[in-house]
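Handoff note, outgoing to incoming analyst
You'll be picking up this chain. Sequence as last confirmed:
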Amino acid sequence: MKKIIAVALFILGSSFFTICVAQYVRPGFDSSALGKRVPPKTIEDNLSLGGSFGLQFGDVTFIELEPMLNYHAGEKFIAGIGPIYQYLKVNDPYFGNYTSSTYGARVAAMYFLPEELSKIFVMGEFDVLNVPEPSLYSYQIERGYLTFPLLGIGYKEEVSDRTFFYVYGLWNFNNSIYNPFSNPIINVGVDVGLWR
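Most recent structure output, in case you need it:
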């Protein structure tokens, strides 16, 4: 009887040891790749390209390009920077034709909510734009800079482990008469990771 108990304890002990060893992963190795060394993380592992664009043609032609370079600080926070370009052409039979370009830069951040709400994010953005401004003294169009603090909420839908589409709405807190945005601002974009 003592021999049977000793053999049973030996088998259970060796099984327990095998299970514990099988769950241990040495740092720098990927267990799913059968011991192949995992390359060290680089800055590209946290970067992604994204942004949005808009097109409208007809009597009013509008083209908007807003690319973004984003940095992923964990799974819940993304910060990005990028240029903005907007082209507007209006063909009006009564007032004539009007063409303008608006350009500048933006800084944006997204914070994703936890757990079941992880597809929803809160977004803040700060834009600096060079916009056309009519001069009251010379009756000509001049250019000037405006800043736009924006805040809103959005939703993302993952396509793969590196790509997701998102839609968001922002509220512009600049009430200038030269403001090119009307509230709310609804936008759709994409984000593609640069990591391997």
